[in-house]
Design brief:
The chain is an alpha/beta fold. Helices cover about 40% and strands about 20% of the residues. The chain has two domains: about 5-65; about 90-275, Rossmann fold (3-Layer(aba) Sandwich), CATH 3.40.50.150. It contains eleven helices and nine strands.
Amino acid sequence: MPTINQLRIMGRQALKQAGIDSHIIDTDVLLMHVLNIDKNTLLINPDTPVGDDNAKIFHEMLERRRKKTPIQYIIGKCEFMSLEFAVTENVLIPRPDTEILVETILVKEAASAHGLEIGIGSGCISVSLEYHSGHIKMTGVDICAKAIETAGHNQLTINSRPHNFFVSNLFENVPRGTFCFIVSNPPYICSADIDGLEENVKGFEPKIALDGGVDGLEFYRKIVNQAPEYLSPRGRIYFEIGHDQADAVAKILDFAGFVNVKIVKDLAGRDRVVYGERGRHV
């Protein structure tokens, strides 16, 4: 039977040859997942034999990673806002940048607010808002039924309560009512740019969650046009954006009558969130 150290050496070499820059970290993550151990245990027990069954599983996962499958899909989970989310290939992998969106809402909205998320995906935004606020309640929709299943699983696992997530093409199945805020991290990649994305993104993450139309702004327009019908007076709308889309999305909000439109930068100093408030005449 191979030892932990032998598998670490073999894994690193295999991933490095495949052009995986994160070959050292990825090898350890896969081994820790297969053996169900933490990093400390991995490091202090290099000569521990690994059973044939676990070694086989490790080799299979390693092969998937060699073919550029994102490691989050391989191990089926991803950390976001210090919480562990289940992820499948039916949802986008949560990104650290999206934490800025959640943090902005936590600062701006009352702890008892009721929000609506358009395009819930894994549920990382809505579930995190409920968890970290304690009292915010979220309704969430997605066009993909399998995404709703994943988001529902994460809600039950993390918040230990049922979800109010359901299938809807944007607002199509959302009951008329008033929400304190609407949040969305919509598809915002220009259609022509999809083929130029990294292989681990374009080859594995759902295109429907990436493609934002000809100029990348299609879903911002659609959401903003309907949002006032579902927002309370002075209710806000929050968007994650591409780093070069802040001005364009702000103009969409301005044109639709939203006021107090603000842009929030991420930790790298790039525009990341745009939000605005429903105007009196909207």
